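Homework-ish question, so no full write-ups if that breaks the rules, but can someone show me the predicted structure for this set?
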Amino acid sequence: MFLGIFFSSEAQVRDTIRIPEIPGYKTLKYDPHIHTVFSDGTVWPTVRVHEAWREGLDAISITDHIEYRPFRNDVISDHNRAYEIAKPLADQMDIILIHGTEITRGMPPGHFNAIFLEDANPVDEEDWRDALRAAKEQDAFIFWNHPGWARQQPDTTLWWDEHTWLLENGMLHGIEVVNGGSYYPEAHMWCIEKNLTMIGTTDVHGPINLDYDIHGGERRPMTLVFAKDRSAEGIREALFAGRTAVYFEDRLVAPEWILEALFEEMLQVRSVTRHRGSYSIMLFNPTDIPMQISKARGNEPGFEFFRTTTVPAGGYRSVPVYIDNAADYDQIELKLIIDNFMVEPDKGLPVTMTFVPDNL
Amino acid sequence: MFLGIFFSSEAQVRDTIRIPEIPGYKTLKYDPHIHTVFSDGTVWPTVRVHEAWREGLDAISITDHIEYRPFRNDVISDHNRAYEIAKPLADQMDIILIHGTEITRGMPPGHFNAIFLEDANPVDEEDWRDALRAAKEQDAFIFWNHPGWARQQPDTTLWWDEHTWLLENGMLHGIEVVNGGSYYPEAHMWCIEKNLTMIGTTDVHGPINLDYDIHGGERRPMTLVFAKDRSAEGIREALFAGRTAVYFEDRLVAPEWILEALFEEMLQVRSVTRHRGSYSIMLFNPTDIPMQISKARGNEPGFEFFRTTTVPAGGYRSVPVYIDNAADYDQIELKLIIDNFMVEPDKGLPVTMTFVPDNL
Amino acid sequence: MFLGIFFSSEAQVRDTIRIPEIPGYKTLKYDPHIHTVFSDGTVWPTVRVHEAWREGLDAISITDHIEYRPFRNDVISDHNRAYEIAKPLADQMDIILIHGTEITRGMPPGHFNAIFLEDANPVDEEDWRDALRAAKEQDAFIFWNHPGWARQQPDTTLWWDEHTWLLENGMLHGIEVVNGGSYYPEAHMWCIEKNLTMIGTTDVHGPINLDYDIHGGERRPMTLVFAKDRSAEGIREALFAGRTAVYFEDRLVAPEWILEALFEEMLQVRSVTRHRGSYSIMLFNPTDIPMQISKARGNEPGFEFFRTTTVPAGGYRSVPVYIDNAADYDQIELKLIIDNFMVEPDKGLPVTMTFVPDNL
Amino acid sequence: MFLGIFFSSEAQVRDTIRIPEIPGYKTLKYDPHIHTVFSDGTVWPTVRVHEAWREGLDAISITDHIEYRPFRNDVISDHNRAYEIAKPLADQMDIILIHGTEITRGMPPGHFNAIFLEDANPVDEEDWRDALRAAKEQDAFIFWNHPGWARQQPDTTLWWDEHTWLLENGMLHGIEVVNGGSYYPEAHMWCIEKNLTMIGTTDVHGPINLDYDIHGGERRPMTLVFAKDRSAEGIREALFAGRTAVYFEDRLVAPEWILEALFEEMLQVRSVTRHRGSYSIMLFNPTDIPMQISKARGNEPGFEFFRTTTVPAGGYRSVPVYIDNAADYDQIELKLIIDNFMVEPDKGLPVTMTFVPDNL
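A: Not a homework solution, just the prediction itself:
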């Protein structure tokens, strides 16, 4: 009979995802798109809280479809029920549960999540404009889901007039740049051009371990939220301010200033050792995101070093750098690209790594 | 939108559990104790079919509690509904779904599974004797669940008069020797002494990957059924005949004749190489169950070999054997114990391994 | 005390790499670039045979440097010694050991492996042309190693006059398209343009498990050789004929006809299920190479299906296909690209997948 | 070309083995029995330093056999050479390298390691007594290796007169209780009875990843040394004082006072939650050693709780405890056994876990 703080007597190990903070903000891990048996998911709402706790998340939203509930003959409830079931356990386990729902229409305009709702029932409107207005009236944060889903946008990922209407009427605040295993480069560019918040989600329907090798260390896609404090209100303020990064498959998608701030905390030069004309630079990465680095254009012709390298998560990499006339330099600057920190589709973050040669 | 034979567009990989057949019978893998949201489990019935398919099972039973349904205010149905929901998918995926239920009472007599039901609703009786009678009337196979569950048998695992009554009245055909992570030595002995069928189950409530590292190759406990054919009827006949083995944590519990028959198919001498006074015996294990071997008493004094060794699943082990006066022997017999083939609690299977020395 | 066929009493499990044959040829797995303590590697030659056996290889070459032997004060021998030490064990374990060496010079011309040598000592010549001539005189197969190694070609991967000279004088038969973790697109194109054999190697120096997660299922880069029979002579004939593929990180690089022939054996349509206007196509991949598939241009406008999908190694994927006017078609043809079958850099293999709609 | 602090440009990730300190001492991880190509191992000495660093060790000893050097025709050196080769790298990587050797004789007396040598060459004596005397003259710490090795003690693990002679003459300070995959219960008892230091080693010969799934998180057996400081001298003092624990396969073997001190730092009661007549006790284990717990005899009859449970490494376990008349107790004491903390063979550590019931 299941009682107790964790509602279960199973062994529980919580993943610690090492991602640094950036100055002034806490880094919260949030998955804002999740389903349960209260729409077309296949697990009970409490499972989502357990999964979130194990995987090191700070916050989740259960966003069951308003319009699509294939189990409705067996699972009978209104649109708030999954939230109500999960809330006590989330409180016990210190997971921030943010109430949400998915508005599920054909294209245009497609599917949208509305989060920070008080009551999901008023969103059950026949006309999609009315549904989204009902969410807006509750001051919801609204984002467009999987804009490149092949079923709705079979060959190209298009922005429709309906999305312009939503944007102009304050009913579109973000877009999923990543949904499950899909990254949408068009959505990435729209977020940059239209100043929309970048969102990453799982849209998970089944038990999460069927989709991701959690035991083996694989992590779900998620939205990193850079919040003033660890609370629902902190997340809300950060989402409306656009302070997010999408973390998926060892990559980050975010506004450039955020990637720069993270980079500052991530790559460390631990030592510099001289061997005649060359230097061994010992790099360390204290985080759980490997750093994939390539040489940028514009380096000094007399510096020879790797074309590409990787500093593994939580690990070290020694790279040799050959310098002509090292004695001429007080400080060596290497121009690099962090390939897995995406400032645009196919464009990594340009950075400079600096070290002081030992010129004795 | 869920369509398709697998009800999902997820990638699917099916585990192949290599366990040999024994002469005259197919080896079927069966988990006869599983829960869903229709009692106190936390997944939809179809999840159980997907899990079974992925993990290489041939058959499962969903055995939701008759008496304990904490989600009954949201999930409204009779006692056959989980079966009905899972059946079409099981048929598509070629998983044998055997209808069952769990009769859930305080000790004595505790919890029982009744399987091979036509209709679980008549089992919903107030008196436990009536409930079990209702199962018997449908010719169900009935087994006692987790007889050593600490909540019901806190310090010792006891056989009560009520169990004698059930046995004498044809309402007790097997016992769980293994339930999830627990092995019950008393139950093992009762099966031997009273000629009851040995059963192993998961009793899984949540998504199975939370309990077992499926991605990493961990396997759930299960009942191996040695059946005349791969069908529900084949399983039924074998269960009533006691032709089962419990497979859990790289161990087998079974009647001795079954373990002997399996052993014959499992340990192969691939080569014998002579080096002066010693022989290298190359052993091969073509199955997924490692063989943990120790030296038995009573070997020839002139034979020197390992005290313990392991032939890994699907792998090889070269063992040295030192023989005095090898020329005196036409054939070498080593007396061994297979420690993880349990004929009784703490008692492995005695076997003889034979090889022909090269006496040139 | 080491005795026995495997020179060790350790447990041994051999990986089975499931890659199909192509008509008329066996698919052999060969790593032709490996080091030991007889140059600057850090393991004894027998370790290389054990590693090869465990990892499912058919053949290896130990190719210690002629010119670079940092341990020569402790490890004293001629250039054939590593081969001589490894050969008896390779014979016992049925690994084809092909004698080779690495000619190790500055750029140009860089490093070269010569394999199928009788005697590596004559290759120890001061002038690189003489060293390569000495290899040619033994009818060696000669390939250029890591042509894009940053230390020798810091910013661009160039073809030098010296390579033209080697090619014109019959001393260059192949190029490493993959060396360890590096893929060289320029080398890939040179092989296509100049009709050279595509080679993939590890160039491993330390214990291989330090570089690859062998226990976890990661596989080393290798050259697949499509040989008339499983023998050193079979490999030699295939290499000179250019019948190879490079297998690395779940990708294949090969001549287009080879990729086409492999594809024919790899993607299977297991079932087609109709649901009103759509079909679920169950794909199966019986190999250990996942198939990464994207939609090609030029499909019928009335066919709607995935943009990208993956059929996992040894697994299934159900994909929905929506067809307008399915009754008009006797057979459906989907034009696809297999992205991880590389016919050129960044260019996957174009294929057509066909299925018959059920038009009842 | 190998340069740089790590002698390699490979990516390096160091394991962090979370084992607590005990009051007054640092917990150092030491493997004092390792081979290289300078006896019958198959890797170069530097590999051992890299392996140690990756696996989170503080200290190692390379202990090549004095008497058994099968590669001596190729690898030519005196008995100090492996140490000399490994030492500069060990210094760079902050691994404490303690010079040692293995004295390798038939039984009696068998094999011995002598560590903390200045010069291993004088140990090369024909008579075993002279060899051990030569080690003693250098104030070496001497321990008996694999006393139950089946080749030397085929059926029983015996203590010979020769061992008494060694003990009485100050040439026996410890015994391997664990060597690789073997635990010797007799050696465990001898250490307790004769006040000898308990030692655990790998005796590794090949690349360590062939024997242990390092990538997958498996750890080698090792000796935990409770030292006043992290230095060779600190280890020496602790070894002679008997302050060690053997850590292998998630178990600890040690003097009882050490196990008690470790336990105090390992099991934490994180919360106590009341549900009518029962309590949920949330246990947390901040270390990398799982805690396998069983109920001891002598608990209050009114307390009902688990028979066995496990608190996973770095994880949580919620256990229900049912208390009759909880209001009568200011504090609840549960008597437990930590089964994997072995104070004797088959005897776990008895402990008491205390919590305060919430009696509102």
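Now go work out the reasoning yourself. Hint: The first helix of chain C runs from residue 45 to 54.
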